[in-house]
Design a protein that fits this description.
It is built from 18 helices and 25 strands.
Length: 556
């Protein structure tokens, strides 16, 4: 007997099938350091048993579903440990060439905006790369000439750099007298007027203001589409970094979407007048939503090397005399850490990239509280690209977990065609983005994409982690990369006792994969799909027929 994708949907508890599910004749990657098992049993949404075929089949009672996996690989549900589900704003997108890198030239970007504006009124948006964002022209004036009547917002594809014209500034209520917000800034002309550049918390505030007019149904559709895409890869939990939506609004939209996977929301820190304001988003009780949890708060302490604003200990190789910058002053950083200590229920996820910013952060942490206190907080370092070997022990001592993004390993060219990290960092580039040495030092590691859409493919990211194009000595093996995408992600969200492994008592979050990612050629990894994705034992995605076996025993 075959079970189709439509029939698989009926395996959910309460839909006419027994809640028990038995998967046999597979290759089970448990993630607990034991040899791969053959079969597993699911009861009440949890793993009830893991072992060999005969023992698991013998547990099955009459009317239970026993699925023959046909030798396929089963893994714990993958955990996207750092994602951005994206905007729901209905803006006209200008067609930009050569993305993601090097992206359009300034002239190409302006021409694309001009063409898009001719199509009628309304917002015009576009994605740009380093060629445009690092160009020093007066972008406000240039975009005003290209689209005098349309609000225009150009954003770099890596999220740290926005360009606006005068119509956009007006639509968003920003005047030339606007002050820089905490954690962000406006570019200014010599006379103090705004030049159209908007950075860090200033740009995310304005993006959120633009999107806030959208009804929750628009964001719900975005979340549903994201869940469907990721479930198709076997992802059962998504860590959403909420740069473009307020936490209560995200919860409302997710409730409408009726989540099929688990969401962990990290509210973006956008303090108003003082650092403590950032926790106001947690002040009112948050409405509960099935499979959704407000996990913590995200702070961005510096930017990235692409636009040369990650805070480095030495000048950039291609910009002498400039070492990047911190988004917060020393006093603000100390207030930030005091807030983390005062709000233990909201886990801190800190975007930190430059080696100088990482050192500054960890030294301030040690000054603020004993390591044992920080271990209890389990502070997340998002990216941690510049983490150097000399700081590994300090990271471990403070109980921090590093959430790294293998997409950052892609050897993208800079404006001159030179590999970006080599151009920006020179001889320091090979030590950037450590992976293997972190694990060897006992630092917990999780992986996520830091992306949306097709580039977020976890199997593409696993491939890059196993290759590590910029420093092959830092490459993970496949088991390590898969563990970082499963149990590592669970640890990063403080849920290692609930999920991330296939073991008795853990949530039945798992994926049956289309190919064995532990043995197929590396370049075949991105083609991997999930044939069956379960969340708490319920079907979130099904994409293949399976053979249904009769239980070995009947119910007594």
């Amino acid at each position: 007997m075959l079970i189709t994708a439509m029939a698989l949907l009926a395996l959910s508890p309460g839909c006419g099938w027994a809640a028990d599910l038995y998967l046999v004749n597979g290759k089970i990657f448990t993630g607990v350091g034991e040899p791969a098992a053959q079969a597993l049993a699911i009861q009440g949404g949890k793993i009830a048993a893991v072992g060999e075929n005969g023992a698991i089949r013998a547990m099955a009672r009459d009317k239970a579903a026993v699925i023959d996996l046909g030798g396929r690989l089963v893994t714990p549900g993958l955990i996207e440990a750092h994602g951005h589900a994206g905007s729901a704003a209905p803006t006209r997108q200008a067609a930009m060439p050569n993305l993601p890198w090097p992206g359009p030239t300034p002239e190409e970007a302006i021409a694309a905006i001009t063409a898009a504006a001719r199509q009628g009124p309304g917002w015009v948006s576009g994605e740009i790369g380093p060629l445009a964002i690092n160009d020093q022209r007066d972008w406000r004036a240039a975009l005003d000439a290209a689209a005098p009547a349309n609000p225009v917002m150009l954003q770099v594809w890596w999220g740290h750099g926005t360009l606006l014209n005068s119509a956009a500034l007006k639509a968003l209520g920003v005047e030339d007298t606007a002050s820089d917000p905490l954690g962000g800034w406006f570019g200014r002309r010599a006379d103090g007027s705004l030049d159209g550049r908007v950075r860090e918390n200033a740009e995310w505030r304005l993006m959120r203001a633009r999107d806030a007019a959208q009804p929750p149904q628009a964001f719900a559709a975005r979340y549903s589409a994201t869940a469907a895409l990721y479930a198709g890869w076997g992802v059962t939990t998504y860590h959403q970094m909420l740069n473009n939506q307020a936490l209560p609004d995200a919860l409302a939209a997710l409730k409408i979407s009726r989540p099929t996977i688990k969401w962990r929301l990290y509210g973006w820190a956008m303090p108003d007048r003082q650092i403590a304001d950032a926790w106001d988003q947690f002040a009112a009780p948050l409405a509960p939503v099935d499979r959704v949890r407000a996990a913590g708060i995200k702070w961005v302490l510096d930017a990235t090397p692409i636009e040369r604003d990650a805070h480095m200990s030495a000048p950039y190789a291609d910009r002498p005399g400039w070492s990047g910058r911190s988004n917060y002053t020393d006093d603000q950083l100390h207030a930030l850490l005091a807030g983390i200590l005062a709000h233990p229920g909201q886990q801190a996820a800190l975007h930190v990239v430059g080696d100088a910013e990482l050192a500054r952060l960890m030294d301030a942490m040690e000054a603020a509280a004993p390591p044992a206190t920080w271990v209890q907080r389990r502070v997340r370092v998002e990216h941690g690209d510049g983490l150097t070997a000399g700081r590994f022990e300090q990271v471990r001592r403070l109980g921090m977990v590093v959430v790294q993004n293998p997409l950052h390993l892609n050897p993208m060219p800079d404006e001159r065609g030179v590999p970006m990290m080599s151009a920006r960092l020179g001889s320091r580039a090979p030590a950037f983005l450590p992976l293997k040495s972190l694990l060897a030092a006992g630092v917990p590691l999780a992986l996520g994409s830091d992306a949306g859409g097709p580039p977020a493919n976890p199997f593409l990211n696993i491939m890059l982690a196993v290759i590590h194009p910029t420093a092959p000595g830092e490459a993970l093996d496949r088991e390590q990369a898969l563990a970082a995408y499963t149990s590592g992600g669970a640890f990063a969200e403080r849920a290692e006792l609930e999920k991330g492994r296939i073991a008795v008592g853990m949530a039945a979050d798992l994926a049956v994969l289309s190919q064995d990612i532990l043995v197929v050629p590396l370049d075949a990894l991105p083609a991997t799909r999930s044939l069956l994705t379960l969340v708490d034992g319920e079907v979130a995605h099904a994409d293949a027929p399976f053979t249904i076996l009769k239980p070995a025993l009947s119910a007594p």
